[in-house]
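Re: the multi-chain job from yesterday

Posting the exact lines I submitted so nobody has to dig through the queue logs.
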Amino acid sequence: MINKYGVKQLSIFLENRKGRLLEVTEALKNASINIRALALAESAEFGILRLVVNNPEKAKSVLSSAGFTLREQDVFAVEVPDEPGSFYSVVKVLSDADINIDYTYAFVGDSSKAVLVFKVPSHKLEEALKALDEAGIRLVEPMFFYD
Amino acid sequence: MWNQIEGAPREELERLQLKRLQDTVQRVYHLVPFYKKKFDELGIKPEDVRSLDDLQRLPFTTKQDLRDHYPFGLFTVPMDQVVRIHSSSGTTGKPTVVGYTRHDMEVWIEVMARSMKMVDVGPKDVVHNAYGYGLFTGGLGFHYGAEKVGAAVVPSSGGFTKRQLLLMKDFGATILCSTPSFALHMAEVAKEEGYDLSKDFKIRAGFFGAEPASEGLRQALRDVWGLIYIEAYGLSEIIGPGVAAGCPYGHLHIFEDHFIPEVIDTNTGEVLPDGTEGELVFTTVTKQALPIIRYRTKDITVLHREPCKCGRTLTVMESVKGRADDMLIVNGVNVFPSQVEHVLTKVEGVTPNYVIVLDKKGVLDKLEVWVEVDDRVFKDGIGALEQLKAKLQQEMLNDLYINVRIKLVEPKTLERSMGKAKRIIDKREAEGLKKND
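And the result, structure tokens for all chains:
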């Protein structure tokens, strides 16, 4: 199921330095790359910017040649009703299947739907997709994000 | 003067040196395969050493040679005669090891007692010894020397500045042994803590070594503590502290009845005349466990052989002006950039780009290693990166014996902030601590 539902996410290493986020976003703007979802994790000295974009291959080459350290990761996304308890129901499935969540972030899709992005350990990805599918949770195909 | 030999006529001293050199050459030739091979390659027999001038025909010994024979390969005695082992951090993981017989310990204590005698340290003195105790030779070297002259020794070792000040005041310390930067740090903390340095402390002299000190720093220590500044020079490969000591006239006398000095051209190995700057080389002539022929210290200095106003006829070396290699001295601890690289490679399996940044935190040295997080090193998780940082810091402490702060930076940051590709940035010199200012 990874081939069908795996979403390419770019993780970018950023020092906590003035103007650095501006430089990433500027590089993406100049290459006409659209950011579909993002999350930023930070520590005292550095941060990791995680992006799902409309054209991961192009974004990767643009950012690499601009000198950014990055890594491509397989994540997955689910679509849930935008209402209380939706997030819980997804986390519950993963928890029952004994799968740890590395990190997750979310955005509102349209007026009634929300999209949740999850990263789980790569050796657990297939298992996670299967468990969610069997529980009737709607998995989002990558085409939803890409052009 | 502790021993009459320090002021003996040169001829007498040189006769003694030659006799001892001949004994040492016999000893290493017959007991250490490494030296026999080297002598044979050069076609030299121990009997060929007929004058002190013949010393320059003998082969050199390097730190690499000590490492190649780790741990005890150059010892000339069985281990049951060894009563002490010290070591310093090595250049790529393995430490450099030195050993002492009972007799070697007596030599060491003798030269330390001579050092103490430079300012007549004796039974009325309380010696506060803030050199690190342990594998380093600094702490125990000064300890035994001070005991030998009958002083009361306070073995406080390094760190814990406030507690040290309390003990110095309450125990009435008269002599301070420490790195010069730590002595200045203590003075600053003392002021912050509300001590009156001239009233609360009785320090009359200090023995300072293990790191270079500018004349500005020396004068600052004289001023704040009101002490006589005595320079201490040594290295564990030769014996530890006590290879040379400063007299009250500020001349650093080499105890050359035990350690014969030469200065050479570091590139050609040619011996240079007195008064010429070059690399300092020592041959130990009384040591048993680890005698060393022509050890290349990599310290750059100048030798002088005129009699001193203090009455000593011993050769004088100028304060070390610099290094013939890339060794760094961080709060008195020797660090080689190759050690840092070794740890990075060991932990990550790859060698990331890095820069060593030396700076001052107050008056003490601070060592940071900026590691570039490139695609090979990058892990998609704050926790994983923090763990990497902690692991590197732990391994640095383990291998280098000092605290190193790791900073994870983006690629090219180093060039961007430093201007050009450099492996070592030493900001300390900008702070008025140049060696010869």
